[in-house]
Design goal:
alpha+beta, two-stranded antiparallel sheet, Arc Repressor Mutant, subunit A, 6-stranded antiparallel sheet, Beta-Lactamase
Length: 271
């Protein structure tokens, strides 16, 4: 029994290390940072990082550890529920063209949200606060806040202590009380507004009826603040794209794509 318990603990620790690397790799997933994120001491974290590199789940670069090729290969064998990129790519692209802003599709993964698709807008100034595959705590940024607000109150309350601790090191540094207020405001508006990084404002909405997945779409703009009118207009564009009848992408979005290609580059949703 002891060996079984110890083995399960090792597996959990390895998964925690993988998650922390996916979240930290943009700033440098060093053994010290991974240890702090997982609660492991530096020696244990380093040993697990090296073992995961040997199995090709991670690889090391001059800036730190990053997700390795085996993780990608395993992802190719995922169930159909997770093969969402091809289905949602036309929607994300259409929103990016329409708003001229960087657009994301994200999915819930436990207490985190992971970026699945990113389409950059055509505006002169672009905001790219996260990369595809990057993970953030629920509540950080507009898309993960939209997912959090869609959960039952009981589940949200059970998540708050852990989320508050994770959010301490983020740009927003939200407390449990601030998260509750943000959830309440999101529910009243019907969309979420968040600040993934200083000077970047995001608008996000949950994707309804996504099957086993919990998805959200968001846009990011290089603006310190955004008016309610602007945010509402952007949310309406995203809701329109999500609610379109299910049909082949070239039929549902092809006409809009051709029309949008002819837009004056000075046009923007933010007037």
């Amino acid at each position: 029994m002891f060996d079984a318990v110890a083995g399960a603990q090792s597996i959990r620790r390895a998964v925690q290390v993988l998650r922390s690397v996916a979240q930290l790799q943009q700033i440098g997933a060093t053994p010290t940072r991974v240890g702090k994120a997982t609660g492991l001491n530096k020696t244990t974290a380093l040993r697990m990082l090296r073992s995961l590199c040997e199995e090709r789940m991670l690889r090391i670069t001059e800036h730190g550890y990053v997700v390795g090729p085996l993780a990608f290969e395993l992802g190719l064998a995922a169930s159909e529920d997770w093969q969402v990129q091809s289905a949602w790519r036309p929607v994300v692209d259409w929103i990016a063209r329409r708003t001229r802003m960087t657009t994301y599709l994200v999915a819930r993964s436990g207490e985190e949200a992971v970026s699945l698709i990113c389409a950059q807008g055509s505006g002169a100034l672009r905001a790219v606060p996260i990369e595809v595959g990057q993970r953030v705590p629920l509540g950080q940024g507009s898309s993960s806040l939209a997912i959090l607000a869609s959960l039952e109150d009981e589940e949200i309350e059970s998540l708050l202590p852990s989320l508050e601790k994770k959010l301490e090191s983020t740009a927003e540094r939200l407390t449990a009380a601030e998260l509750r207020n943000a959830v309440a405001l999101t529910r009243r508006r019907g969309f979420a507004v968040g600040h993934m990084l200083p000077g970047i404002t995001g608008v996000g909405i949950r994707v309804p009826d996504a099957g086993a997945l919990q998805l959200a779409i968001s846009v990011a703009a290089p603006l310190g603040q955004m008016s309610d009118q602007e945010a509402t207009a952007i949310a309406a564009i995203m809701a329109e794209a999500i609610s379109r009848p299910a049909r082949p992408a070239h039929e549902a979005y092809g006409q809009d794509r051709r029309a949008l290609q002819g837009l004056d580059t000075r046009e923007t949703v933010l007037r």
